[in-house]
Each structure stands twice: as structure tokens, then as C-alpha cells.
Design brief:
The structure holds 2 protein chains of 2 kinds.
Chain A: E1 2-3, E2 6-7, H1 8-39, H2 46-64, H3 68-89, H4 100-121, E3 137-139, E4 144-146, H5 147-169, H6 171-181, H7 183-188, H8 193-215, H9 225-240, H10 245-265, H11 273-284
Helix pairs in contact in A: 1-5, 1-8, 1-9, 1-10, 2-3, 2-4, 2-8, 2-9, 3-8, 5-6, 5-8, 9-10, 9-11
Chain B: H1 3-25, H2 32-55, H3 63-80, H4 84-106, H5 111-131, E1 141-142, E2 148-149, E3 153-154, H6 158-180, H7 183-193, H8 195-200, H9 205-231, E4 233-234, H10 241-254, H11 261-280, H12 283-298, H13 302-313
Antiparallel strand pairs in B: 1-4, 2-3
The chains are: A mainly alpha, B mainly alpha.
């Protein structure tokens, strides 16, 4: 079977890879958008925290025999707590300054985390076995689908839309949205805004770590896995604009798919296609697809 | 402007003269290659500081200009066979043109988005540098000859090369100094302090930002092209985002928005890296990160900035 002279199996598998990358872009840009909304900083350490999620899961499995399912909950919690400490001890002192200092601080933190893990584990990368329940694959007729990859897409979409629901439809989310609009008035209404900020940062970081655990069995667990990804995610965020939660999710997924298609039709351009789209969006719609100017 | 600032300003020519003499005699006391590295990164950081310190624009992609100019200069000198000064000029011009393009795109947004856009554009340059045949991929451009300046002076001698680098640094530094102390520089500062007000005064803010960006990019390129000749190598690490982060760190550590801060910061970081490289290995990244965190949390004025504040406090008139 062929479409446009491309075997459907190849097209299907690249679209699947695109969808998986897109799920990671979606989770990561969602976390960045939530943090940016309330704290007004760009969390440069997001990629490092994603990497830490993967490493916590890997260490748990290889050193302590803790299985994937426990790690899927525990690793985001652990890395999220690290995030809470970062917010309480460092970021808190920068809110009154230019927002760029938040970017610089988290950049420094990213270097520290990356350096420590590189010193401990080298850069060759470690592999993480696919959990037994999700190993193997199914033949869809036109292509072969490894079950784990299907699970990654389902799990990340569930978390993304769950987060969307929490922010748009629950009371906690209402506080969060109000805090994003005007935190002083929300504080005056008796809501503990500093706590809300801490929780938000912790949650955003936990999302990154969750993506890291999901990624562990697919990619090599490598100290540099996050920094290579995060810059693409920055471009995703510029394309989508950080104004809308749903916008972040859809932009992430869409760009992953486009990247996958580029790999089929013009492989040389696949590493830069997201950046090229960013340039086009900047020219046509500088505020981003879902952004408020 | 209060009296202590006037005091500092009035002593500046004296300080510059002292530093100039120091620069002239330094290669007889210190290893010239080490000094050349400091001067190249110093110029790179000064060019970056023109943008962040004086126009308030945080570019997180300045490695693109350093690296591109390095590649262009290396290719021109090694494969086309031009003389070194032409190579450096070609590198500078190419970085300026790239700066024009990137600046034009990035100033469509402000603040954090500006930083992310410059970072993403620079990453695109990095990926292109890996893929294109001419840049040598992972190996980079090796064996770039230093050649003869104007076809006459042999630069393979380290002392001769040093004086060329020193001259280039002085030219670049002078351009930056003049830019800051011109009416153009005053308008940049006005934009940094209050952009809406600058707009309401009738200034075409984006035009000023773009020109500042181009000057900064071109000078960063001049530093990169010179660096390629010094080390006879243009490599991927010069276009990597680590290099973009390093120049931010140098500027921050030395003193954001001070004229000499970036040079001091560059010298400190280069010296630190040289010292640490043998003893601690991959902990260098951790230490750089820790300095970053410390600077942001409690040392935001940087070394030169703190010194100025100290002089001010001690009330010298």
C-alpha cells in the first residue's frame, strides 16, 4: 500500500513518532505555560527536570527494583518537591525584579542539574526496559503499533486534558486563572497566593518529570535528553503563544505531527522545521496562534 | 548625575590608558594564547552587553553570530585563500547580516519571548552547522592557517597574533564605547528604562533596537572570526547554546550595563575554566551554573557594578 508514493507503513510509523514527540511537546509546553501564567517566568530548567524524571525512574528500577508504575507517580512527586524547594528558596526572591532574572536563574539551575547527572552517569545514555504489561505490539493492518507507544500517547493526552479540566472547570483552577489575571486582588480576597504560586510551580515541574518517565523506555535516559528538547519546546511556545492551555496542547501535538511528516517527505529539514514554522508565524501572526497580543 | 559618578567618569580616560599599557606589555608576562582567548571572549561579552546592558534586550542566541562568523572566516581563509584581515571582515559582515535577519524577526516580540526567539533561531543555526557539508559537522573546520596580515606580517608568531587581536579588541571596544556615549546610546537607554515613553516621544523604537542588534551581532562576529584565527579552528561548540549562556554569565558576573564589566567577567570565566578544566572535569558546568545562580540571587550588580557602588558609598568627590 502506498500514499503519494510513500509506503503506508513508513508514513504510519513516522506519524506515530510525530504524535509521540507531539505529546511530549504538549506536556512540556503546557507546564511552561502554566508556570509562566502565574509566575511570569520562563522555566529554563524544564528540560533538566524532564531529564530528572527519567533518571529518578531509571535509578529506582536499577538500584531499588521499583517498577515503572510506582515511578510514574513517585518520580513526578520527587522532582515536583525539588521544584517546590526551588520556588520557596530562590525564585520567590526574584518576583519583584525584571522577569528575565527568573530565566537566568533557572538557566543556572539547568546547568547545575545537567552537570551533576553528567558527572554521575556519563553521556552515553542508559536504557530503560518497557514494562511487561505494555511490551509487544499489535498489527493494525497498515502498520505495526508497539503497545508502549500507544500508551504514551494515551497517558500524556489524559494528563494534558486532565490539567485543562482542572484549570478551566474546577474551583482551584478558577483561583489560578484569577491569580494569573491579577494576583493582588486575589490575595486581597483572602486566597493564599504565595501557596498557590508554589503549588503551580511544583505542578509544572511534576508535569515535566512525568513526561520524563514516559520517555524513559522510548529514548535513551541521558543527562542531555532535556536540553535538546527544551529549545524546540521554546519554539513551540512561541508558535502557540502562552495565553491558552488548550492552545499549548494543540500546538504541541500539531507540530509533532508536522515534524513526523517532514521526516517522511524531506528528512534533511526535520530538525529545523519547527523553527522555520516559528519564523513564519512570527511574520504572519507575531502574537502566536493562540496568543493575546 | 551625582558627583561620585562624575568622579568615575572623569577618571575613565586614565583607567583606559592604564589598561591599554597593560594590554601592550601583558604578552611578555602571561601566556599569549590565554590572553587572546580572554580578549576574544571579552569583545564577545562587550558586544552582548551593548544589547542587554544598554538596550535591555536579552538575546539568548548570540553564539549564532560568534559561530557563523568563525565558520565564514575559517572557510574564506582556508579554502578561498584570502588574507586574515579579509577573513575577519567577511566574518564580521556575515554576522551583521545574520543579526539583521534575526533582529528583524525577534523584535516583533519583547521580553521573555525575545529571549526564546533568539535562542530558537540560534539553535536552527546549530542544526544547520551539523548538517551542512562545508562546516565539517562534528569535526568543525580544522587547520585554518593564520596566514600573513595584509600579505606581509606572519601571524603564526603568537606575539604578532596577540597584537592583532589586541588591536581588534580596541577597535571593537571603541565602537561600543562611542555607541553608548552617543545620542543613539542615550535613546537606547531611554527605551530600556521606559519603552512606551520613548515611543510617545516619537522615536521609532524598533529601528533603534534593530540597529543596536546589528552592531552587537557584527561585533560578536568579529570576536568569533578572530577566535577562529587564533585557535585555527571553528567548531560546533561556538554555535551551541552553552556559548550563548556563557556570554550571559560573563556579562552578569562582570557587571551588567557597565563599560568594563563584560571584559572583567570574561577574564574571570576564562581563567576559571582554564584552571578548573584539569582538576574537576565535568563539574565545570556545575560550577558555572552555581555562579549563575549566585549572581542572580545576590550579586546582580556584578564585580564592576559592586565596585562602582562601593566607590559611590565611600563618598569620594
Amino acid at each position: 500500500m502506498e500514499i503519494f508514493g510513500i509506503p503506508t507503513a513508513l508514513l504510519g510509523s513516522q506519524l506515530l513518532v510525530g504524535l509521540i514527540n507531539g505529546s511530549f511537546y504538549a506536556i512540556l509546553s503546557l507546564g511552561l505555560a502554566i508556570i509562566f501564567g502565574l509566575l511570569n517566568i520562563i522555566n529554563f530548567a524544564h528540560g533538566a527536570q524532564y531529564m530528572m524524571g527519567a533518571f529518578v525512574a531509571w535509578i529506582a528500577l536499577t538500584r531499588f527494583g521499583i517498577n515503572y508504575w510506582v515511578s510514574l507517580i513517585a518520580a513526578p512527586l520527587i522532582v515536583g518537591i525539588v521544584g517546590v524547594l526551588i520556588e520557596r528558596l530562590m525564585l520567590r526572591r526574584l518576583y519583584k525584579l525584571d522577569h528575565l532574572y527568573g530565566l537566568l536563574l533557572t538557566f543556572g539551575l539547568a546547568l547545575i542539574f545537567e552537570g551533576i547527572f553528567r558527572d554521575q552517569f556519563g553521556i552515553s545514555g542508559e536504557s530503560y526496559e518497557v514494562p511487561e504489561l505494555l511490551s509487544g505490539g499489535v498489527n493494525l493492518g497498515f502498520m505495526f503499533l508497539p503497545i508502549y507507544r500507544g500508551w504514551v500517547i494515551i497517558a500524556s493526552l489524559t494528563v494534558c486534558f486532565g490539567t485543562w479540566y482542572m484549570i478551566e472547570r474546577t474551583k482551584l483552577g478558577a483561583y489560578l486563572r484569577a491569580g494569573t489575571e491579577n494576583s493582588q486582588i486575589v490575595q486581597a480576597l483572602g486566597i493564599n497566593v504565595p501557596l498557590l504560586i508554589t503549588f503551580t510551580y511544583g505542578y509544572g515541574v511534576a508535569l515535566a518529570a512525568f513526561a520524563g518517565v514516559l520517555a524513559a523506555p522510548i529514548f535513551q535516559v541521558n543527562p542531555l535528553m532535556g536540553s535538546n528538547l527544551i529549545i524546540v519546546v521554546f519554539a513551540v511556545v512561541v508558535i502557540g503563544g502562552m495565553g491558552s492551555i488548550m492552545g499549548s496542547i494543540l500546538t504541541g501535538l500539531g507540530l509533532g505531527l508536522i515534524e513526523g511528516l517532514t521526516k517522511v517527505f524531506y528528512p534533511e529539514a526535520s530538525s529545523v522545521v519547527v523553527f522555520v514554522i516559528m519564523v513564519i508565524v512570527l511574520l504572519v501572526r507575531p502574537a502566536g496562534l493562540f496568543g493575546k497580543s | 548625575m551625582n558627583s561620585s559618578e562624575t568622579f568615575l567618569e572623569s577618571k575613565l580616560p586614565l583607567l583606559f590608558a592604564a589598561l591599554f599599557v597593560l594590554g601592550l606589555i601583558a604578552p611578555f608576562a602571561v601566556y599569549p594564547t590565554f590572553l587572546m582567548k580572554i580578549l576574544c571572549y571579552g569583545l564577545f561579552a562587550c558586544a552582548f552587553n551593548l544589547l542587554l546592558g544598554f538596550a535591555g534586550l536579552l538575546s539568548f542566541g548570540h553564539a549564532a553570530f560568534l559561530g557563523t562568523a568563525g565558520y565564514v572566516c575559517g572557510l574564506m581563509v582556508r579554502d578561498v585563500g584570502v588574507t586574515p584581515e579579509v577573513g575577519i571582515l567577511a566574518g564580521t559582515v556575515s554576522a551583521g547580516l545574520l543579526g539583521w535577519l534575526f533582529g528583524w524577526l525577534a523584535i516583533k516580540r519583547t521580553g521573555i519571548y525575545f529571549a526564546m526567539i533568539t535562542l530558537a533561531l540560534a539553535q536552527m543555526v546549530f542544526f544547520l552547522a551539523i548538517q551542512i557539508k562545508e562546516t565539517g559537522g562534528e569535526d568543525g573546520l580544522q587547520g585554518v592557517p593564520r596566514g600573513h596580515l595584509f600579505g606581509l606580517l606572519d601571524l603564526s608568531d603568537n606575539i604578532a597574533m596577540y597584537y592583532l587581536v589586541f588591536a581588534i579588541f580596541c577597535v571593537g571596544f571603541f565602537i561600543i564605547y562611542r555607541t553608548i556615549h552617543s545620542p543613539f546610546g542615550q535613546i537606547l537607554k531611554a527605551i530600556r528604562e521606559n519603552e512606551p515613553r520613548a515611543i510617545s516621544l516619537g522615536y521609532d523604537v524598533n529601528k533603534f533596537k534593530l540597529i543596536a542588534f546589528i552592531i552587537s551581532a557584527a561585533l560578536a562576529g568579529m570576536a568569533g572570526a578572530t577566535k577562529t584565527l587564533v585557535f585555527q579552528l571553528a567548531s560546533l561548540s561556538d554555535v551551541h547554546w552553552h556559548a550563548s549562556g556563557e556570554v550571559v554569565l560573563m556579562t552578569l558576573l562582570g557587571g551588567l550595563g557597565t563599560i568594563l564589566g563584560p571584559l572583567v567577567g570574561a577574564a574571570t570565566i576564562v581563567a576559571l575554566q582554564t584552571q578548573l578544566a584539569d582538576s574537576v572535569g565535568s563539574w565545570v558546568t556545575v560550577i558555572m551554573g552555581a555562579i549563575f545562580v549566585l549572581c542572580v540571587l545576590s550579586f546582580r550588580r556584578g564585580m564592576v557594578g559592586e565596585l562602582q557602588a562601593l566607590i559611590k558609598r565611600s563618598g569620594v568627590n
